[in-house]
Design brief:
about 450 residues; five-stranded parallel β-sheet; 19 helices; 14 strands
Length: about 450
């Protein structure tokens, strides 16, 4: 995306020269002849960078005062100060007040462009670092891992929709990787250099929803709250669990999404943004509309393109690749060498239903890595698998036997089943071999031999 640069100078020729120089390099420019015009532009929508003259005739503020005003409201916007009357003291004061750099008139075009590029690069790096810090504790996979038919189709869809401007609605079970898909769409789009802002709808209260999304005017205290829409300008705004957004805010969101224009809380001037909306939900959206948790008009506004992320149980063939991917990822996080996963362990994981989807798999791998720091021969086998993956509370021991046996060759699986079967029958008949043999249809002597071969202790 082309960055927008505000040029503030009281001399029309200087403003025009700077703007043309920048536009020749592909930047978008906006001009202001005085402090009042500059404040109006900045208040409506902060630019990517500001080039600001220190001395301006017929203005109610000089450049240093505008610098301080802007720093109070938008400290993340880089500001380059320029002056034909520049001196060391003015340059030092400008830098101390938060300016990115100082350029003295007359200046060469190469010097101007180099300084602008550096300012924008530093701003992008600061934003990317903030996003990385925000993501550092997240448990979502960082890439779309897998070769199943469903994942290949999902990659194809991402390739098709990434460079469109259409709004996208992603559905899928919790933990399946909906945010990963949204981030991939963003990074493959023309907005990849812009911000990716996440709105966690479940954390947005009805009382503060409008302020969090659209911002608030608090100029009396010298601060303005910048909402998520403005933070996502020229980037992507991702609504996580859309149905959890308060209904009153959903109504206001319909218009903001359609027009890309809104007013801050307490404000009178319209604010225009350029934001792509991607939304996601793990709920049944038809049921959410019927139950009054999701406004139907908002659903149609946001669901121009619909995508579904399959749960892990629907793409079991990806479990091995995902598990090994998470071993590498978690090992880096924990500062440990990666471990190998035995085939019996991976097969057992393939037989599990994964109600927590990909997020749960990652957590399981991290648990295995923590509890098996130095496995024998460097390989973690079936005994390293957390107990909850071998049986579910609803199904009890029978499920445990099944899941164990699915990870074993036929001969070992049959032996496991027989051993568990004999244990259960001995408990049922309280160790009475005669009654047990009659029930299962075996001779008493044959039953004794079978129990001995299975290392099952008989009663009497």
């Amino acid at each position: 995306m082309n960055e927008e640069i505000l040029v503030v100078d009281d001399e029309p020729d200087i403003r025009s020269l700077i703007s043309l120089t920048l536009e020749d390099e592909g930047y978008l420019t906006v001009q202001a002849a005085n402090a009042e015009e500059a404040r109006a532009v900045i208040a409506s929508r902060p630019p990517s960078c500001i080039i600001l003259d220190i001395w301006m005739r017929g203005s109610d503020m000089d450049g240093l005062e505008v610098l301080n005003w802007c720093q109070n409201l938008y400290p993340e916007v880089p500001i380059l100060m320029i002056s034909g009357h520049g001196n060391v003291e003015a340059a030092v004061q400008a830098i101390q007040n938060g300016a990115h750099d100082f350029i003295e008139k007359p200046f060469k075009a190469e010097r101007l462009l180099l300084t602008v590029r550096r300012a924008l690069q530093q701003s992008r790096l600061a934003r990317e670092n903030a996003e990385l810090r925000e993501q550092s504790g997240a448990n979502e996979q960082v890439s779309l891992v897998g070769q199943s038919v469903q994942i290949k189709q999902l990659r194809t869809t991402i390739d098709k929709v990434a460079n469109t401007a259409s709004r996208i609605l992603i559905t899928g079970p919790g933990g399946s990787g909906k945010e990963v898909v949204a981030r991939l769409i963003h990074t493959q789009s023309v907005r990849k250099d812009g911000p990716f802002v996440v709105a966690h709808c479940a954390r947005i209260s009805a009382e503060n929803a409008d302020t969090e999304l659209f911002g608030s005017e608090m100029l009396a205290s010298g601060r303005r709250i910048v909402g998520l829409f403005e933070q996502a300008h020229r980037g992507t705004l991702y609504f996580d669990e859309l149905c959890d957004l308060p209904l009153e805010t959903q109504s206001r969101l319909v218009r903001a999404v359609a027009e890309q224009t809104f007013r801050r809380v307490g404000g009178t001037d319209p604010v225009t943004t350029d934001v792509r909306i991607i939304s996601a939900s793990s709920q049944d959206l038809a049921a959410a509309i019927e139950n009054g948790h999701l406004k139907e008009d908002l659903y149609y506004r946001l669901g121009v393109i619909s995508m579904t992320v399959p749960g892990l149980a629907e793409r079991r063939e990806d479990i091995g690749q995902l598990a090994r991917h998470f071993v590498e990822e978690c090992a880096r996080k924990l500062g440990r060498p990666p471990i190998a996963l035995g085939d019996d362990l991976v097969n057992a994981m393939r037989s599990y239903d994964w109600p927590g989807s990909v997020r749960q798999l990652r957590n399981v791998i991290e648990t295995i890595l923590i509890l098996n720091e130095k496995p024998e021969n460097g390989v973690v086998g079936l005994d390293g698998l957390p107990a909850e993956l071998l049986s579910s509370p609803q199904e009890g021991g029978a499920s445990q036997i099944l899941h164990h046996s699915l990870s074993l060759p036929l001969r070992e699986a049959r032996e496991l089943f027989e051993r568990e079967y004999m244990h259960s029958q001995l408990q049922k008949f309280e160790g009475n071999i005669s009654q047990m043999a009659k029930f299962i249809g075996m001779e008493r002597s044959a039953l004794h031999r079978k129990l001995k071969s299975l290392n099952v202790e008989a009663g009497n």
